[in-house]
């Protein structure tokens, strides 16, 4: 299938698909005689996996680590669960960090509004 069709089916732009190929998230595909890329059906699932993973906050390097080398192979459910659980741990830590930063900002705002209060 041509890149335009793959983009249409997956909802991912052709330029993003080319970017994923360039950076090893999808294997370099064969080209037709006219030079157009010809993607196999298995690429639809792989592109969707990359897209959903990005929307969940996974970096491209994290995504690359859990994608199978062969796009026709399915990702093992246990591997997906493990990666999702680790991402939850990461998100929880970020939330704690952001709450701490927020508290400091609130304290700083209060101090700046009333520097004689002895805060900060």
Structural account:
The structure is a single chain. By secondary structure, the protein is mainly α. It has one domain (3-117): Multidrug-efflux Transporter Regulator, Chain: A, Domain 2 (Orthogonal Bundle). It is 62% helix and 0% strand. The model has no long low-confidence stretch (mean pLDDT 90).
CATH top level is Mainly Alpha
Radius of gyration, taken over Cα atoms and rounded to an integer in Å: 22 Å
Number of strands: 0
Number of helices: 5
Q: Provide the structure class.
A: mainly alpha
Order of SSEs: HHHHH
Could you give the topology of this structure?
Elements: H1 3-10, H2 14-22, H3 42-55, H4 60-66, H5 77-113
Give a quick precis of the structure.
It is built from five helices and no strands. It is mainly alpha-helical and 120 residues long. The longest helix has 37 residues, at 77-113.
Throw out a few tags for this protein.
120 residues; mainly alpha; Multidrug-efflux Transporter Regulator, Chain: A, Domain 2; 5 helices; 62% helix; 0% strand
């Amino acid at each position: 299938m041509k890149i335009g069709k793959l983009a249409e089916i997956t909802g991912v732009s052709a330029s993003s698909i080319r970017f994923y190929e360039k950076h090893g998230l999808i294997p370099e595909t064969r080209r037709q005689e006219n030079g157009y890329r010809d993607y196999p059906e298995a690429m639809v699932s792989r592109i969707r996996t990359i897209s959903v993973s990005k929307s969940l906050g996974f970096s491209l390097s994290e995504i690359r680590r859990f994608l199978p080398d062969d796009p026709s192979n399915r990702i093992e459910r246990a591997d997906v669960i493990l990666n999702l659980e680790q991402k939850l741990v990461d998100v929880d830590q970020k939330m704690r960090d952001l709450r701490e930063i927020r508290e400091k900002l609130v304290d700083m705002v209060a101090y700046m509004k009333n520097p004689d209060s002895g805060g900060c």
